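User: Could you check the structure of this?
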Amino acid sequence: LPTPPARLPYVPHVPPMALLGKVTATTFALEGPRCVFDGHADASDTVWLAVAFANASATFRNPRSRADVPPYKQLPTARSYMTLETAAAAYLCSAPSPPVLRVGGDTACRDQDRQDPCNGPLPSPGPYRVKFLLMGCRGPKAETRWSEPILLRRAVSPCTIDPAPTRRGSDVVVIASILASLGAVLASAVLGALGAKVWGSLCHQDLGTDTFIRRSYRTHHIPPALPQPLPPGCRCSLPRLCRSSPQPPAPC
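Assistant: Sure, the predicted structure tokens are below.
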């Protein structure tokens, strides 16, 4: 009997960092198993990714050789497949950087009728579970745990889009009406106060102008002072005035 593969504690997962298109309707990104198979892999070994529907991962059986690897085209019936065959040296700790894998990124798999493993687009949102499997010339040597369920994005059907705006609740409408009324009252009060202030300043300016005009007008109509009678014993140096006086002129 073949030796069962070593079970490693590593759990595959989607990268936590921000990544464009990390999860789409047909693909998802996955962190590579860097430093996971150190001490188990030889130079000729390869690392595979097993992909299965979440409810079919428990019934998945590791292939005994490369010839028994389930292909991508059997996913609808077998509920699982294996893909992304990579040399084990790419995941060693001495590798330059941890690679980020794209599951379902090969769109040409749909058009090619081939038996070799393919990384074709995923046919449904899933959810899916994945695990890494180290394969040698004699079969599986080590494997990771299954990942948590990975759910893809769902495409929104145009028939489900409501062209009408969303109806608001009656409470929201009442609150909005009250706020609008309070705003109108406040605006009216502010405008009224400003109008009264401007009107008062204009009235004060008009009152000052009228007073000045009236005072100026009265200064031009002050009657001239009447001549005072000459005292007795004065010398009549103004004969005309002496003749016009109603009293007898004083002796000159």
